[in-house]
Write a structure and sequence with these properties.
alpha+beta; three-stranded antiparallel beta sheet; 8 helices; 10 strands; binds ligand FH5
Amino acid sequence: KARDGKEKEYRLEDFEVGKPLGRGKFGRVYLAREKRTEFMVALKVLFKSELVKEEIEHQLIREIEIQSHLSHPNVLRMLTYFHDEKRVFLVLEYAAIGELYKEMRKQPNQRFDEKRVAKYVYQVADALMYCHKNKVIHRDIKPENLLLSAWGNVKIADFGWSVHAPSLRRKTMCGTLDYLPPEIIAGVQYTEHVDHWCLGVLCYELLVGHPPFESKDRKTTYKRIDHVDMKFPSFVSPGPRNLISKVSWQPI
Ligand SMILES: CC(=O)N[C@H]1CCN(c2c(Cl)cnc3[nH]c(-c4cn(C)nc4C)nc23)C1
């Protein structure tokens, strides 16, 4: 905010753009520094031509509306946004450690110990309770969309799929099916409970190293989701089994 308290209009020249951090679904994300304050941010760049070609302008507008109004320690902040003739820029909070997914792969058995999973699941649950209180369903909770801040706290990123509850909006079956809850597969109206289901799937994956219904082909994955056909390896103790089973049984 500028000194007179008004929203400052940002432009690209207010930033020094650094290394690419990775690719979201429809844009590149760069590390950047705001020149005046030297504040580090993640700058997400989307090309207007691509937004139009993919007909996802409405999705971006919803992502901006939702993420710019949410303010929670475990939700990645959208600080501001601006556009020039060809591109839209989202100025996002920079999570210095990076993607939780990569952190998990770096662990000895490619999974986290129970204490660490408890911390991450608690933080995601807290963020989801906050989102649900604001009538927002994320719908895409999975390790790839979770980031770690410099202090090792989880930040839910990528609200590209979030919607205002309750919703019937079809989630196109692109990407992994592993996290799809039965009610979305069935195409019935769904509520915030879809995020609870994903939290159970996330808890399982962080503990075990792969998602519970993972199968060699999509058909089998669908079937296993539908029958909630979940097996726990012996090293998973009763506490997490109980929690995961409780959030995974959905009264559809
Ligand atoms: C779904 C999605 O947006 N994925 C990624 C792209 C980079 N982006 C980041 C966003 Cl949006 C915010 N902060 C990030 N920090 C990092 C990162 C840090 N290290 C050391 N390595 C990485 C990578 N990436 C981000 C989110």
